[in-house]
Amino acid sequence: MDKIKETKKTVWGAALLAVAVFAVWKIHENQAQKSSETNYETTPVAHVAPIVEQNVTVEKKYIGFVKPINDVVLRPYISGFIGKVAVKGGQKVNTGDKLVEIDASIYQAALEAAEAAVAKSEVDYAYAKDYFERVEKAGLKAFSTNEINNARTQYLAADASLKQARAAARQAEVNLGYTNIVAPIDGVVGNVPLTVGDYVSPQSELMTIVQTDPIRVVFSISDKDYLEEIKMPSMFAGEKVKLKLADGSIYNINGEFKYIDNKLDRSTDSIAVYFDFDNPQGKLVDNAYVTALVEKHYQGIICPKDLVNLQSDGSFVYVAEGDIVKKHPVRILSEYQNSYILQNDFAAGEKLVTDKITLRSPAQKMTVVENRAGGTY
After folding, report:
1. What is the pLDDT, as a whole number, of residue 7?
2. Who's near 116: CB < 8 A, 6+ residues apart?
3. Of 3, 173, 244, 342, which is the most exposed, with the fewest CB atoms less than 10 Å away?
4. Is the pTM of this model over 0.70?
5. CA-CA distance, 225 to 128, in Å (whole number)?
């Protein structure tokens, strides 16, 4: 019986010893885990790269269309029958080139009649003037008051008739001149649906002339791009604007900025700009669509897009200064391939954190490791 009791005591003692050993091991394990977690939480690692400012050229693309600087719909000033058509459709013309002649016979006759009326009026005027001057000089000694007044009236009427006749003659001369219709601008003639003998009037459309060299291209930029441009000394200063044509070729003649529209298109939040291009070979055709390529130059920091945190209240990146990591607000100047160009307002000594991290405080101490690849941003 004593042996059984002694055996039970031994078993219970061993069990208690095992429990005690397990408890001690568990306490040590928990302490080690807490120590490991504490070390991890207080000293996380952040990989960084130097921040280096660069000059970058960005090519922005806009869809535009071609339109003439000047185009004219030609209509006759007078009515008449076509006597001659001096041009064909598609022909290039210069200012002053003869295009159409209207039969001038009726207008020539009208001018001659008007000139004859002027001659008669000049005779009547000379007689009335001479008579009035004699009557006025003789006065009441030789003529009554009524006779003097009549002489004055006839003189003034003759003067008015002469002025009217001369005005009619000038109008007849103008009308005769309008029988020759000439090109008011340099350009290319459109369709010419005229034949000799056609009757035309001021309501008739004879043809169109479109100026082709230089020619204008219109494209729209975003409101953001507009705000960027107006900060410059002059809009598009130092920027090259080229065109990509429908066949994919590049029109290498640079455009010249002329002006910008005076209102924003609400539906697209964009505003139209106007550039003029020399067009000696006629590659740019009225109403053709083109892609405007605007080369813009920036000086800033190239940063991969995935390192920029875009927020409604402002974008930011993480930077390290020594072993302290913090948020740094950034201003995005432009997109560049898979990166953003950031304005360089970083402090000397700051480095860009290249890891995706989350800070537990505005400024957190971390183990900072510079990338071995030696990359810069």
Report:
1. 52
2. none
3. 3
4. no
5. 76
